[in-house]
From TrEMBL:
<keyword id="KW-0597">Phosphoprotein</keyword>
<comment type="similarity">
    <text>Belongs to the NDK family.</text>
</comment>
<feature type="binding site">
    <location>
        <position position="104"/>
    </location>
    <ligand>
        <name>ATP</name>
    </ligand>
</feature>
<dbReference type="InterPro" id="IPR001564">
    <property type="entry name" value="Nucleoside_diP_kinase"/>
</dbReference>
<dbReference type="InterPro" id="IPR034907">
    <property type="entry name" value="NDK-like_dom"/>
</dbReference>
<keyword id="KW-0808">Transferase</keyword>
<keyword id="KW-0418">Kinase</keyword>
<feature type="binding site">
    <location>
        <position position="114"/>
    </location>
    <ligand>
        <name>ATP</name>
    </ligand>
</feature>
<dbReference type="InterPro" id="IPR023005">
    <property type="entry name" value="Nucleoside_diP_kinase_AS"/>
</dbReference>
<dbReference type="GO" id="GO:0004550">
    <property type="term" value="F:nucleoside diphosphate kinase activity"/>
</dbReference>
<keyword id="KW-0479">Metal-binding</keyword>
<comment type="function">
    <text>Major role in the synthesis of nucleoside triphosphates other than ATP. The ATP gamma phosphate is transferred to the NDP beta phosphate via a ping-pong mechanism, using a phosphorylated active-site intermediate.</text>
</comment>
<dbReference type="InterPro" id="IPR036850">
    <property type="entry name" value="NDK-like_dom_sf"/>
</dbReference>
<comment type="subunit">
    <text>Homotetramer.</text>
</comment>
<keyword id="KW-0460">Magnesium</keyword>
<feature type="binding site">
    <location>
        <position position="87"/>
    </location>
    <ligand>
        <name>ATP</name>
    </ligand>
</feature>
<protein>
    <recommendedName>
        <fullName>Nucleoside diphosphate kinase</fullName>
        <ecNumber>2.7.4.6</ecNumber>
    </recommendedName>
</protein>
Amino acid sequence: MAIERTFSMIKPDATKRNLTGKITAKLEEAGLRVIASKRVWMSRAQAEGFYAVHKDRPFFGELVETMTAGPTVVQVLEGENAILKNREVMGATNPANAAEGTIRKEFALSIGENSAHGSDAPETAAQEIAYWFSGVELVG
Ligand code: GDP
Ligand code: MG
């Protein structure tokens, strides 16, 4: 398996509860390396653009509110099979369905305030990395 890069985000519900270190530790313990990281308080326009794929879903308004309610930490992770590995460590979207030991099982408050984001495929990983970072910010 080739080395991959993926985009990860620690959501406002988690930064508010000071969980940035604990969430990052779980990703690092799984073998993923943080090659870029910054704290961003998203504007409404940034949140709407980032989640544009969900714009027709009934939860879109709530999603934008939740993502602009406080700072996030946006990260690029690198490692073997990084996209799938990040999704595994993160756990199911709804914390009620998330496996033991996952970020969302341990830290999420609800399906809306579910603490973390991870890209779901190589194309979305590339798009999401480029949405938040320029090439010189990625230090592998
Ligand atoms: P993810 O890839 O596991 O984050 O899930 P999705 O791409 O399907 O959805 C993006 C984000 O929208 C999720 O992480 C949730 O924060 C939010 N979301 C998804 N489904 C719902 C829902 O039914 N209700 C609410 N309030 N938020 C949702
Ligand atoms: Mg998704």
